[in-house]
Write a structure and sequence with these properties.
Layout lengths: L14 H6 L3 E6 L5 E6 L2 E3 L2 E7 L3 H8 L2 E8 L5 E12 L4 H12 L5 H14 L2 E15 L10
Antiparallel strand pairs: 1-2, 1-5, 3-4, 4-7, 5-6, 6-7
């Protein structure tokens, strides 16, 4: 018997890891063809992933050159479940300081209280020019080891 992979999440279950997970793994293509994978904070809203990164980061440079990306969002536990998004990313440069602070604060609020999120956004604004990476899914793959009948006995 060949083991391939655990069952997928149902369509209704896919959003759960997207809202619960704390960190995503953002993958983009380097100039030399290798994959750049980086842990990122993210926000999932309106069926897209938003990441904020310095405009001079490898992530932003790679997206500018090639918009194809992958994002892995998983719930780390004994029986993990995950969503792997294949899609296109676009860079969105804030038009003003206030726009950047508002978007960064919204993202950081997932990870900390609002007051601290505002301070963090301001601190980041003062040290780097940030850009939003917006990932629009083209294909979504998932797995859920909790549903796996073969894995627990292996």
């Amino acid at each position: 018997m060949d083991y391939t992979q655990p069952p997928p999440l149902t369509e209704g279950e896919v959003e759960s890891p997207l809202k619960e997970a704390r960190t995503a793994r953002f993958c983009s293509l380097n100039r030399d063809g290798t994959i750049h994978a980086a842990p990122v904070w993210f926000r999932y809203e309106n069926r897209q992933i938003t990441i904020i990164t310095p405009a001079a980061s490898r992530k932003a440079k790679n997206v500018k050159r090639n918009s194809k990306v992958s994002v892995l969002i998983d719930i780390e536990q004994a029986s993990p479940r995950a969503v792997l998004i294949y899609g296109r990313a676009e860079l969105r440069y804030p038009k003003s300081r206030d726009e950047y602070l508002a978007e960064a604060t919204r993202l950081y609020e997932k990870y900390m209280p609002r007051e601290r999120a505002e301070r963090t956004a301001l601190g980041m604004y003062q040290i780097t020019h940030g850009v939003e990476i917006i990932v629009k899914p083209e294909r979504i793959v998932s797995f859920d080891y909790r549903k796996d009948t073969m894995y627990p006995t292996a």
